[in-house]
Design a protein that fits this description.
132 residues, mainly beta, OB fold (Dihydrolipoamide Acetyltransferase, E2P), 1 helix, 8% helix, globular
């Protein structure tokens, strides 16, 4: 039995790109930077990995509307390898993550502002403070 599942948490490196398939289905492309705080040898490190994410349907439209560069997200999906012939005739390959779930994390900064990690969890209002 084969298994293909990926879970990533990171920050968007640019605003989502929105396109539509020939049948009119929305497709958003995200670029995610994942920077673990420690390297595999246990030292503080700057090991950054970049992943291309593809989101389909209504979820793609929501991503385009609410996500932007610097926003932290959790992506759950599967790996897919695409193959195509470039205009110069060379065969090309690309591995990307096809998202089943995109979860927005943290408090969203105002568009254009950078998000700063303070190391503290955001404050959560008491149920009594919620007006509904």
């Amino acid at each position: 039995m084969d298994y293909n599942r990926v879970i990533l948490t990171g920050r968007l490196t640019k605003d989502p790109d929105m396109r539509y398939t020939g049948g009119g289905k929305p497709v958003a492309q995200l670029s995610l930077a994942v920077n673990p705080r420690k390297s595999p040898d246990g030292k503080q490190g700057e090991e950054v990995s970049f992943f291309d994410i593809v989101v389909f349907g209504k979820q793609a439209e929501v991503c385009k509307e609410h996500l932007f560069k610097g926003r932290q997200v959790l992506i759950e999906g599967r790996l897919r390898q695409r193959r195509w012939a470039a205009q110069d005739g060379q065969q090309r390959r690309k591995v990307e993550v096809v998202a089943n779930l995109v979860q927005f994390l943290g408090q969203p900064p105002a568009k254009g502002e950078s998000e700063v990690d303070t190391g503290h969890e955001p404050e959560v209002a008491d149920d009594e403070d919620v007006p509904f």
